Amino acid sequence: MAHIEHEADRLALIRSLDLLGLQGAPDLDRITQLAAQALGAPMVLITVVEEFEQRFISTVGTDLKATEREISVCAVAIESQGVFEVEDLSQDTRFANFRTVTEDGMRFYAGAPLTLSTGVSVGTLCVVDFEPRRLSDAQHIALRTLADLAVNQIQLLRMIGRRDPITGLPNRQQMSADLAIRKRRSMLGSMQLVVIDVLESGASNRLTQALGPGPAESIVRQAAFRIADLLPVDAPLYHVGVARFAFFLSDEDGDGLLGLLSAMRKRVTMPVHTHGLDMAASFHAGLAPFDGDSEDDAMRMAVTALHAAVERGVPWSHYEAARDASLRRQHTLATQVDAALHEQQFHLAYQPRLDLATGQVAWVEALLRWEHPTLGAVGPNEFLPIIETTTLMPRVSQWVIQQALRQLADWDALGHRIGVSINLAGADLEDGRIVERAFALTEQYGVEPDRIEFEITEGHWLQGEAVVSQLQTLRTLGFSIALEDFGSGYSNFAYLNALPATAIKIDRSLIDGMEADGRRARLVRTLVMLGAELGLRTVGEGVETEAQLALLRRWKCNEAQGYLISRPCSSQDLRRFLIERVSTPASTS
């Protein structure tokens, strides 16, 4: 049983190190050539003994690349502690019937196992002759020395791709290989994986743009060894990202782990002097438990915890299954948006905006809804941020525009002439086609552009020249532009000057409670007055009480939207609402 486990470990190591990829390496070829000269052998091989084959990654005296393992003397030699030598293969019952002996004429064999630093033998350096012979003591030493040289060269060649060039630490691939070896050796009990970020990406990018990569690399390098100095000797540190490190400890060390992290944070965030500057690394960590059944998922879990720490502004965070399930659900939804479009899982709801001067409905906001076949109703606050990060956002928005305009045309036919407001995301303007798509749909459904309002929300995406140009073109064609959630951010006032807005929608966070909060009420009144001064329509969002509605009407706000007036509803329910409003006096809600 122990031999079987050892063999599985050995074969896995051959695959994880991709030893067969070393075939033809010049550094190994020089070793076989030296062995042929030093030992006077017509054939020298560096072999890798696999499950069914013996592969040759460097040869002298043959063009063969492999033979069957069942006729491989090396398969026996790798089990020896020193040089394995057979003076005459034809006289040894173990090998006398091998085809290489009976047909190819092999007689002499001497091989030294190639044993890596892990203690696992993966192949041999062997010499072959076609006459019986024996090596002298000096030749035995030479063969063993050359085998050691071959091992060192193999490990050096394979360290490329297994070590980070900045810190010299083992990388993520090496960590995966080490975990796999520990698992095969039944050394993975209950463990904790810790992943640490020491430099925020924004800070790193700014530093690199200003001074080149040197300072950021210096910070990462110094932070790495501050962490490594605090780790137990049996817990190697791995460099698993640009400024990200990982280590794992037995759960038995768990009681001291938080103390260790606290010490690491203190050490890592101490000033780093580099390139004439005193700078400091940051520190965020994620912790995830794992065992022999979950090591493949451990890195993902720890990174999930790390991002939770960053989002919450805390030094570290433990893995949370509930948060992970939410992220996985988001991924699932993102992959099913295309199917939702094709299978008509999306539909629109409409929320009316009340004209406070006439008491009638002049505009409705089109709101996207998703009825998932297995998850049921998925809220827009959950799925819209997901869609906005994908390339499908423009397609979804085009579907929304098309459905909304088709509905407008239907309402027109029934005598209800209103406008529709549609939300746009940054991704909708990235490909530069929103103008042509929107205008083509107005012509297709016979709806005037001035009855279409596009709502945009504050964000960095609004600052690009191409975005502003498209919004200006939409405005020139007659479309309206509304700034949504106005008053909730720091930059919306600057947008009033930069963007061709026709309306502002005062954020619900300001409307909520303003009837009992004089400061908030004065702020909303000021925004309404500002809108009037600039010739902008003003819309109060999130109106839920009669007192809020009365204040907006008193301040000459143009429109109100919220549950007091109507919840989002179907097109049929909205039509009934429109009919009811025809006979409602302007002085009532």
From TrEMBL:
PROSITE patterns: EAL. Residues 330-582 form the EAL domain. It comes from the Bacteria. Pfam families: EAL, GAF, GGDEF. PANTHER family: CYCLIC DI-GMP PHOSPHODIESTERASE PA2567, CYCLIC DI-GMP PHOSPHODIESTERASE PDEF. This is Sensor domain-containing phosphodiesterase.
